[in-house]
Amino acid sequence: MPPAEMTAEPERPPQLLLAPMEGLLDFVLRDVLTGIGGFDRCVSEFIRVTDQLLPPRVFWRVMPELLHGSRTAAGVPVRAQLLGSDPACMADNAARLAELGSAGIDLNFGCPAKVVNRHGGGAILLQEPEQLLRIVEAVRRAVPADVVVSAKMRLGYTHDRFAELCAQAIEAGGASELVVHARTRDDGYRPPAYWSRVADVRAAVRLPVVANGEVWSVDDARRCLRESGAHALMLGRGAVVDPALAGKLRRALGWPPAACGPQAAGELDWPEMLPHLERFWRRVCEHIEPRARAGRLKQWLNFLRRASTQAEQAYQQLRRLQDAAAVERWLLEQSSALQPLKAHACL
Questions:
Q1: Superfamily of domain 270-346, CATH level 4
Q2: CB of 38 within 8 A of CB of 264?
Q3: Using CA atoms, how far apart are residues 325 and 331, in angstroms rounded to an integer?
Q4: Does the pLDDT of residue 85 top 60, yes or no?
């Protein structure tokens, strides 16, 4: 596929996007993190497409925001993500998502999971640029012109030699935005992320390119933007570990507040973080089966403790608890212990 003649990329406002993380960063955690603030847009976890048109309930289960204007409770848009390899079936399901009101359609060409790749989805498609073209083309034709079609890819499967070809195929198919996770499938999530290769991809296409991977701090963000030349960042694990990261980045980089949602918090100490844990727990109790509830809270605390000694203490206190009622009592005790501090602060 010959490279197209390049033109100067127009100036675009900077953006911070919230990544999906299968089994962790789902609609429950999206709700909490966008409520803390700083994100311009989210992407749902992938919706697996095989050989049939999925019923609406499947889309609603993964992305209940479809029932609320395709936005989180804080008002941040959510774009549904599809994963599959059959162009016609992907197109049919994209059309249904458009009918359900999704804020765009995102296509997953980056999932590294073996079971997904074994069935022809996710990152394995990066070995077949022509198939990427067919999928994007079919989806673009199937949805109205005002529905954005975007994609996310890694640098490759076992190597990154096809990265530019894959990006060009995605662009040729009609996508209007591309997120690049700056590692191959074989790299997994091991550092480093190869941000300079994102710059190579940007140079090969006209569509806006978002950089993703290994942004844990303000310094990481600065280096990623400098090396990739991207106008936007997608945060995943960094935002799960530090829920205030989006706000920190916006202030440190001089970016304006996000167009939607609350003004982002600058720092979150433990007393300020606790209400967000409580909200997370309430959402878990509303939507997750009882036997899995304690595990979901411990899962997030396991990430939070990487950057917070108080989260480490909380994790150690909760790690052996399996009963949701015991977790509920623990949260009430934490909240009650903070009440004297809050009263004192008002004096």
A1: Dihydrouridine synthase, C-terminal recognition domain (1.20.225.30)
A2: yes
A3: 10
A4: yes
- Cross-strand partners of 232: 15, 210
Amino acid found at 136: V
Burial group, residue 127, by CB count within 10 angstroms (0-12, 13-18, 19+): middle
Region 191-198: mean pLDDT is 98
**Number of CB atoms found within 10 A of residue 61's CB:** 12
CA–CA dist 255, 268 (Å, integer): 20
Task: Render pLDDT for 128-186 as a digit per residue (tens, 0 to 9).
Answer: 999 999 999 999 999 999 999 999 999 999 999 999 999 999 999 999 999 999 999 99
Break the chain into its structural domains and give their ranges.
15-253, 270-346
Q: Are 240 and 300 in contact (CB under 8 A)?
A: yes
Strand partners, 43: 79
224 is catalytic: no
Assess whether pLDDT exceeds 70 at residue 334: yes
Q: Which of 111, 260, 285, 346 is catalytic?
A: 111
* CA gap 49, 65 in Å, rounded: 19
106 and 82 Cβ atoms separated by less than 8 Å: yes
Strand 105-109, strand 149-156: pairing: parallel
**Rounded CA separation 92/298 (Å):** 38
What pTM was estimated for this model as a whole?
0.92
Strand partners, 46: 81
| SS3 category, 18 | strand
| Fold that domain 15-253 belongs to in CATH | TIM Barrel (3.20.20)
